[in-house]
Automatic annotation (TrEMBL):
Coiled coil: none annotated. Residues 15-341 form the AMP-dependent synthetase/ligase domain. Gene3D superfamilies: 3.30.300.30, N-terminal domain of ligase-like. The lineage of its organism: Bacteria, Bacillati, Actinomycetota, Actinomycetes, Pseudonocardiales. It comes from Amycolatopsis bullii. This is Fatty-acyl-CoA synthase. NCBIfam families: PRK07787.1 (NF005858). It holds the Pfam family AMP-binding. Belongs to the ATP-dependent AMP-binding enzyme family. Residues 392-466 form the AMP-binding enzyme C-terminal domain. CDD domains: MCS.
Length: 474
């Protein structure tokens, strides 16, 4: 029989597993309630109304115990996207927090409220490692969202590789405030601690006060996205309680988008801590990370994780071996998804002879550290014969004291092919465009300076804090 996905859940323990505010469950409690709910789940698939609550965690664990694929739903989902996901995944019912108001689009689906209590009973045998565990829908920037089928094998592989990279143990207590309908918050942030036999404390809503409180009271690790760390970077220099709490954390991890080097530097200056970045996707789970026991290089996402093969591929399909040369990241390993649900065409197109095409462009340094320069479609700018990554220009712009936020895109130019456009949220009086262009040229190179500067009150972001660059172009 396969090894259990959550050994401590099967063995039992009085230790706290999950805490959301004042509500907590031990491993024994979680086994009882999730095991009871698992026995009630029908075959097929179940949708989970994924609010940031203890209930969502219980529902997903119950589905995993039952061997029933779970489809997490963003509680802020729009009606058209919801209709597409329901038609595509055909769940048998929806699991929801008691009292949660569901949209009209779910009215035809049977509802089961998620309990937080239950009687103890033996858990079901561990399903086959290749069986689907979760179906997570991508953001759908170029069309309707695709359902990424993640097998149990991928979850176990990626979480065990992070155990190796981060020294993650049962003694670790993770704090985070991430949404629970995607890989970062749900798989890494909830299922990760449960696989290790550790604990997780979810803040419900992010606040620097909550982070400081939990890290000062036994939490050892913090997971966040760059918007969260940007807030921390802005406050940690003057907030002694926050600085002290972060200083005593074992590990600070940022993901889902690039953390600007300027924010790395401000956090390190105030706390001595160096934030670890990692790189993954819905389809691949985690691919690389800066190791807890390795050199920290701000601006990089580290080296390939154990069991992950990674290569960079050029425009003509050639493997790029030169240090600092740009290529598309392709990966293969047991961390990969099985397929896009009902989309054999998209599944086939996503692979290059067994290698998954990520669409992310990167370089590697002499030590093998990967530096992502942007998405192939939106962040790689071809200007004046040069391939230029938007990310390094954004980092340079953020070093200017008059810039609070920055995004860089390309737009057609008759002379250059594409010209570099900087979208700036100023920190006060907007700096002049020429001043910003000279600033970038001095730090990087003249051909990387923005030719156009546009000022905004805020950058458009999705629920993960990623800038939606297609919205900028529109």
């Amino acid at each position: 029989m396969p090894d259990p996905l959550f050994p401590t859940l099967v063995a039992g323990a009085a230790k706290e597993a999950l805490r959301f505010g004042d509500h907590a469950l031990t491993y024994d409690d979680l086994a009882a309630v999730a095991g009871g709910l698992a026995r009630e789940l029908p075959p097929g698939r179940v949708a989970v109304w994924a609010t940031p609550t203890l209930h969502t965690s219980v529902a997903v664990v119950a589905a995993l115990v039952a061997g029933v694929p779970a489809v997490p739903l963003n509680p802020k989902i729009g009606e058209r996207e919801l209709a597409h996901i329901l038609a595509d995944s055909e769940p048998a019912l929806v699991l929801a927090e008691p009292g949660a108001e569901l949209p009209a689009g779910l009215a035809a689906l049977p509802r089961r409220d998620i309990p937080l209590t239950g009687g103890k009973a033996p858990l079901a045998d561990e399903p086959d490692p290749e069986s689907p565990a979760l179906i997570v829908y991508t953001s759908g920037t170029t069309g309707p969202p695709k359902g990424v089928v993640l097998p149990r094998r991928a979850l176990a592989t990626t979480l065990d590789a992070l155990e190796d990279a981060w020294g993650w143990t049962a003694d670790d207590v993770l704090v985070h405030a991430l949404p629970l309908f995607h890989v970062h918050g749900l798989i890494l942030g909830i299922l990760g601690p449960l696989r290790r036999g550790g604990s997780v404390r979810h803040l419900g809503r992010f606040s620097t006060e909550g982070v400081a409180r939990e890290l000062a009271n036994g939490a050892t690790m913090l997971f966040g996205v760059p918007t969260m760390y940007h807030r921390i970077a802005g406050e940690v220099g003057t907030d002694k309680a926050l600085a002290d709490a972060l200083r005593h954390a074992r590990l600070l991890v940022s993901g889902s988008a690039a953390l600007p080097v300027h924010d790395h530097q401000r956090i390190t200056a105030a706390t001595g801590q160096q934030v670890v970045e990692r790189y993954g996707m819905t389809e691949t789970l985690m691919n690389t990370s800066v190791r807890a026991d390795g050199e920290r290089k701000p601006g990089t996402v580290g080296v390939p994780l154990r069991g992950v093969e990674l290569r960079l591929v050029g425009d003509a399909g050639e493997v790029v071996d030169d240090v600092e040369s740009v290529g598309e990241i392709q990966v293969r390993g047991l961390n990969l998804f099985t397929e896009y649900l009902n989309r054999p065409d998209a599944t086939a197109a996503a692979f290059d002879g067994g290698w998954f095409r990520t669409g992310d462009m990167a370089t590697r340094d002499a030590d093998g550290y990967v530096k992502i320069v942007g998405r192939k479609a939106t962040d790689l700018i071809k200007s004046g014969g040069y391939k230029i990554g938007a990310g390094e220009i954004e980092n340079a712009l953020l070093e200017h004291p008059g810039v609070a936020e920055a995004a860089v895109t390309g737009e057609p130019d008759d002379d250059l092919g594409e010209r570099i456009v900087a979208w700036i949220v100023p920190s006060g009086e907007p700096p002049a465009a020429d001043e910003l262009a000279d600033h970038v040229a001095k730090l990087l190179a003249p051909h990387k300076r923005p030719r156009v500067v546009r000022y905004l009150d805020a950058l458009p972001r999705n629920d993960m804090g990623k800038v939606m660059k297609r919205a900028l172009g529109a």
